[in-house]
Amino acid sequence: MNAKKIPKAFKLAFLPTRSMDLTGVELAVAAYIFSKDLPNSEILADVGHCVADRTALLMLAPNERVMDDVISVVAMMLSKTSSSHQWFMPTMIMQDALQGTRLTQANLDAVVCNHMRCKVDKVTEIFQPMWTDGHWYLMIIDVRRKKLIYYDSLKCTWETEGRKLAMTQVAVHLESLTIGSKWLSSSNAERPRFLSYEYEEPVVSQQHQRS
Questions:
Q1: pLDDT tens per residue across span 152-208
Q2: Does domain 82-200 have CATH number 3.30.310.130?
Q3: Prediction pTM value
Q4: What is the pLDDT of residues 39-86, one digit of tens each?
Q5: Where are the domains of the chain?
């Protein structure tokens, strides 16, 4: 089934392509999300303390910049369905580290409860979406291998060092949030030191400029 099955009377901000090979249900969901006739303020994803309305999901269309609301919703969904030893962090932690925003205690408690679901000496990987220079990329803190992994589908030679510096700042911030005996599983547990980790840059597929 393909997008031609969507009635032409529907006014859509984005028409799914044939290559997406969507099922009937998926086409119906896409038509509902990208409808121009429905209110932009309608909440379409609600996973607890993270929500996304139609305005946010419309940013998934081509040539749009994805809003942090969408990424935080995905992080919450992954946190609910993955091992507690993996932390899928919302964007507010990155913003707190790089932009100087100060999380309220309620927001910090929600992040800890929903995303940081094991002691820091038991965590294996931390997935942190990053936003610098008008661009999203991903940092993974691989605790087992002691690596800061830089995933970027639009690498830019003259921006790489700045993005790595941002990764370091966020890693240091995450380390500071997990100081104290309450974050350790036992008195002799070893606390990971993210700042000492080496960078790793896997080869990843690159998107076209302006895509």
A1: 998 888 889 999 999 999 999 999 999 999 999 999 999 999 999 999 999 998 887
A2: yes
A3: 0.89
A4: 999 999 998 878 999 999 999 988 888 989 999 999 999 999 999 999
A5: 11-60, 82-200
